[in-house]
Amino acid sequence: MKDLKTRDRGKQFGSLVRKAIDTSERYNIEGVAAGIDMSYQSFYQRLQGKTPFSADEIRRLIAFFPDPSLVSYLLKGTSYVAAERIEPGSDSHEDHIFKAAHRIVFEASDVLEVIDQALKDQRIDHRERATIMQEIDEAERSLLSLREFVSSMHK
Q1: Cα 150 from chain centroid?
Q2: Which of 49, 98, 130, 154 has CA 20 to 30 A from 146's CA?
Q3: Residue range 2-24, pLDDT digits in tens
Q4: How far, in Å, CA of 22 to CA of 61, rounded?
Q5: Residues 89, 81: contact at Cβ < 8 Å?
Q6: Chain-centroid distance, C-alpha 140
Q7: What element of type H or E holds 149?
Q8: pLDDT of res. 57
Q9: Which residue has the higher pLDDT, 91 or 147?
Q10: Three-state secondary structure string covering 110-143
Q11: How far, in Å, CA of 117 to CA of 47, rounded?
Q12: pLDDT exceeding 70 applies to what percent of the chain?
């Protein structure tokens, strides 16, 4: 709950968006600005925290640039967790369930791998903790996505 009391007017969120775009291989600042129907200058003001994102801008940003860290940041300190929607497409429901279940196994093995690496020196430092938490978040999203897909199958 401590994180909810900050009054940075969106600077931390803008910084997170900038970092996510910079580390992305598919997106750049200009492309994201155009994709959410915003001028480069207006978007850059938001990335620098000089102007806060509006709720509608955040919705458009997440729809165009679906980085889970953005949604996780917005839900931090709440009882909610972001889960990606699994869209059936041309595969059968069974194929999607099978692929999603395998994704869960891969994500869980990633958690195990980073924990194993972190414990080689018999302790976990703050950077290793952050990496472990990030991997757990990804595994959790995979599991929740499968749950949502399966629960919506025969309604």
Answers
A1: 21
A2: 130
A3: 555 556 778 899 999 999 999 99
A4: 15
A5: no
A6: 11
A7: helix 126-151
A8: 96
A9: 147
A10: HHHHHHHHHHHHCCCCHHHHHHHHHHHHHHHHHH
A11: 34
A12: 90
CA distance 81 to 137: 9
User: Does the CA dihedral 70-72-77-80 come out positive or negative?
Assistant: positive
Cβ neighbours for 29, distance < 8 A, ≥ 6 positions apart: 18, 21, 40, 43, 44, 47
- Structural element, H or E, at residue 74: helix 68-75
Q: What's at 151, amino acid-wise? A: S
Alpha-carbon distance of 124 to 155, in angstroms, equals 45
1 Cβ partners below 8 Å, 6+ apart?
77
Q: Which pair of tokens denotes residue 122?
A: 């018999």
Contact (CB, 8 A) for 113 and 53: no
Q: Residue 33: in which H helix or E strand, if any?
A: helix 29-35
Could you read off the pLDDT of 20-58 as tens digits, one per residue? 999 999 999 999 999 999 999 999 999 999 999 999 999
pTM, rounded to two decimals: 0.65
